[in-house]
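One such shown below:

_____
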Amino acid sequence: MTIRAESQLTSSDNVLETRLEFSDNRLLIDLFGEFNRNLTHIESMLGVQIVHQGNQLAVHGEAANVGKAAEVLDALYGRLEAGKDITPGDIDAEIRMGGEAEKKSPVDQMELFQGGRVEIKTRKKLVEPRTEAQKAYVKSLFENELAFGIGPAGTGKTYLAVAVGVNMFIGGHVDRIILSRPAVEAGERLGFLPGDMKDKVDPYMQPLYDALNDFLPSKQLAKLLEEKRIEIAPLAFMRGRTLSNAFVVLDEAQNATTMQMKMFLTRLGQGSRMVVTGDRTQIDLPRGVRSGLADAEDLLSEINKIGFNYFTSKDVVRHPLVAKIIEAYDAAGESQTHSR
């Protein structure tokens, strides 16, 4: 049995300390693990500090993370009371899934479609799509194994896709998150950039890191990246792989060639979901090279279980001027087309 007491330490920072008292000291050795590795793993994944004091554990950190850590410790102690062992996989499952998550479908797992509101739960915050197109896009991401988000910059295509990926990951519906982009902008200049391959391509992947940092505590994100349970890599690195039990996002897909797009889409494995995002007005491919995103639209739009979702300047959620800039360029493009 576990007894819990809580105290608010710094209300301005929403910092909390929870003390857990365990009735059977003999089980604590297995709960802590060799050299306290189980506690260290929970600390790293949830961004909390756990201090051992006799038959008590003091868990300190942000309130939401402390509450989650206490639930995990309760559940693991319950396993020991039931005569079960604790493995690293058991700890990960409790952190990601918790009590009832494994029984829920992906759509149930997100707190969605209730009273007309749409909310995606992540480790750090709830993400709420703001426009009808964004709501339809999020619904499509949960309902389809392959979904496309096509529209101008600033409409939340990538941000919402990563949020859904994090939601599915912490809900236990996928084992990995894989985020990719074509490194087209680098072209032949890539070799002249300093550092190793990671240093060369990371600048082009930075928007993906930014999105992840919004949804996961920094320590947990660093741990998941180190363990390759979250991967961020150029599109070329996907060749030859089968991506199973993963949530996979291809960003800036307008810069993938037809062959690259085919290669990427055929990586889809069992238990995985793929999202392809792009903006047809920002193609950086060499003149005469057709965008793989355009080909995918033409070839796949009639296939069931593939969702195509489109955005306009009305869905821009950045600075209001961004929408006006997009509208101005769209109008200029239409006038040039008519004048030819």
In short: The mean pLDDT is 82.
